[in-house]
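re the bet — no i am not wrong, look at it urself. input seq straight from the record:
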Amino acid sequence: MFIAKVPNRSSPPAFLLRESYRQGGKVKSRTLANVTHWPPEKIELMRRVLAGDTLVSPSEALVIERSLPHGPVAAALGTLRKLELDRLIAAKDERNRRLVLAMIVARILDPRSKLATARGLGEESAFDTLGEMLGVGDADAEELYEAMDWLQKRQARIEKKLARKHLKEGSLVLYDVTSTYFEGRTCPLAKYGHNRDGKKDKLQIVFGLLCNAEGCPVAVEVFEGNTADPKTLGAQVRKVQERFGLKRIVWVGDRGMITEARIEEELRGSEGLDWITALRAPAIRKLAEQGTIQMSLFDQRDLAEISSPDYPGERLVACRNPLLAEERKRTRTELVEATEKKLNAIVAATQRAKRPLRGAAAIGLRVGRVLNRFKVGKYFTPQITESLFSYVRNVQAIAADEAIDGIYVIRTSVEKTTLNSENTVRAYKGLSVAERAFRSYKTVDLKVRPIHHHLEDRVRAHVFLCMLAYYVEWHMRKALAPLLFDDEDKTSADAERSSIVAPARRSAGALRKAVKRRTADDFPVHSFQTLLKDLATLTKNRVRFLIPESKGREPNGPTENGAEREWGKGNGAKGNGPSAVMLTQPTPLQQRVFTLLGLSPTL
């Protein structure tokens, strides 16, 4: 029997099951069944069976020798190359450049120590296809350290290229500083300082991140751990002016960064340098006491431009946020009440009959601990003697702070013709993107801390490496925003705000994603990290095909006449045929990721 394909003119061909027979010395055939209605794969299978082909299950036809996650590597490395970051690092494709690229991508995918990173690149212990794609599967930890040293020497040139790409004359520069704790005591940069990580027993380093107005990182600088935030500003100003060659720049920094002293010493009088910052609470209170800030300013709008002889040649934009005012009042009330509860316990301790608390020093020590804990000491007036303790609320101090609740004042040297009041406030609020960068830098994704390097240049290289990783991640997040919980339509969200002073709102699309957990294309909404994990199921597989073996003979030896051929078993047996690399078929979500990134999963 056999399957016959019969042409049918303009119609699809017919497939007939036929058998051959002899009649009168001639070979004839007759149709047993019309199988045209069968699925094509079923027809082909029947044809092969009738033709005597050997059919085997997939497990008997091939073995999968290795399977490695490939999707995240293709996404991150592809984005890096699309941004031409590899060429910014070094024009020549040399081994150090490839090692640096491997460390950048590894920092995005799964931050690890350099030893663990080297292990993940190796052929025998690879975590993914990164080592294979960059040809650095034989790298060890020492070679990665050497590549870091090579990168650190090129940092100035790389940052200059990034600045040329993302900054221009007259643009806004966002600058903020953070600290991170340090493991060990031998690095010259590691010092005790204002610890933002809650690790008061740890040494730390300080580093400042410089971004453009959108939050794209451009440069990073590492300072000793006891460096005050304002002291870092001068080095960044000189970097932008001298190294980047930009003469007209608007610096945006918070009230703890661009202080009065920094303005006088670093910014004022420098041609082309303007700034946007905010006043501290004591300065706002002083303006309120002088009558410069009055609640009537906010009768019609929640912002108003004011002037003061204390700030000649500058613009002050006073803003009032009612929601912020309510929150500050609520917080103050809770802290005052919690402090009173602790202070009442001290009062009771001085009046108890058995072992009462005595001594002005002992009483003062306990009172000081309470006031320092809740940071509201100015709202109380304590009275301490050798045997008694009492207190009263400082109602004048509380009333003075209530008068300026929800009020903040933006201070700038930028002319109104360049930035009006609303855009000045918007520029200052843009610092939130730098704060978001630090969250990603330190905890969420890149995990710059804790730092274990002991050499000063290695610490600088580590922080710079993390900045380059964030540079790639920033662009990936921007492209993948439709699939993430991130808001991809911030422009419309800003347009729906009643005022720039009002709290930021999410767009209707972002709110819909948050509620339904589905995108507009009906894909599941992801965080950046879970999306990378989904991409990890797109694997690159090395398979080996099995070929028939002769019984009692070597796998590739000749067969004897009449010897049966059999297929090697796929369960645990090694294949003896040719090998091939096969990529998992991308899911619709994975294909959408690469479409948004403008890449191909095959890299």
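see?? Residues 324-403 form one domain. told u. also The longest helix spans residues 322-351. so pay up
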